[in-house]
């Protein structure tokens, strides 16, 4: 197979620009979601959870979002390695998902969309079913949308790729592979 294109989102968009996109998405989705649902649920009283519970939900959102990327790939028969690196100089931990064989473009796009769809639909349904906890469900919805910005950037790049290509992950990003002509 030949490499058609290499995608390195951090090199193309720069990490600070990606953070600005992500935080903008969080703020916009929270404002629009809260305004829209507060008009729908006008006379409902809100239940208050402790700040510890709120932070716990938001901290657990990232591993759940990452795990939901793995689910469609596992159903496609792809072995995914989950590893965590801790950089002592920068004092941060990073989770990596690495799959061992190339994946078709459509499976990979489905794997990128899966967490955004599942978590956002669940949060929207929870906001409608439990109006007293609506603000917490909208908070989960908006933070997951902020995490999904990275996924949407990858999807935007992959939609321009040939239909029958394969995606292979490398250390710096993704390689789009096409079959060699015979």
UniProtKB/TrEMBL annotation:
Native organism: Salibacterium qingdaonense
Keywords associated with the record: Membrane, Transmembrane, Transmembrane helix
Protein name: Putative zincin peptidase
Regions crossing the membrane: 20-40, 52-75, 107-130, 136-155
Keyword Lyase: no
């Amino acid at each position: 197979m030949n490499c058609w294109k290499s995608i390195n989102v951090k090199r193309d968009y720069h990490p600070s620009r990606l953070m600005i996109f992500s935080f903008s998405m969080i703020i916009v989705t929270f404002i629009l979601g809260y305004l829209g649902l507060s008009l729908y649920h006008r006379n409902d009283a809100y239940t208050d959870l402790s700040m510890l519970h709120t932070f716990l939900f938001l901290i657990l959102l990232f591993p759940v979002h990452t795990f939901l990327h793995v689910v469609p790939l596992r159903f496609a028969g792809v072995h995914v390695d989950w590893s965590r690196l801790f950089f002592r100089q920068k004092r941060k931990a990073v989770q990596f998902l690495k799959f061992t064989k190339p994946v078709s473009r459509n499976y990979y796009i489905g794997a990128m969309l899966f967490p955004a769809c599942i978590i956002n639909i669940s949060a929207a349904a929870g906001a409608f079913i439990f109006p007293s906890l609506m603000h917490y469900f909208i908070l989960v919805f908006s933070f997951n949308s902020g995490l999904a910005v990275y996924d949407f950037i990858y999807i935007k790049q992959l939609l321009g790729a040939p239909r029958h290509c394969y995606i292979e992950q490398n250390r710096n990003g993704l390689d789009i592979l096409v079959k060699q002509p015979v």
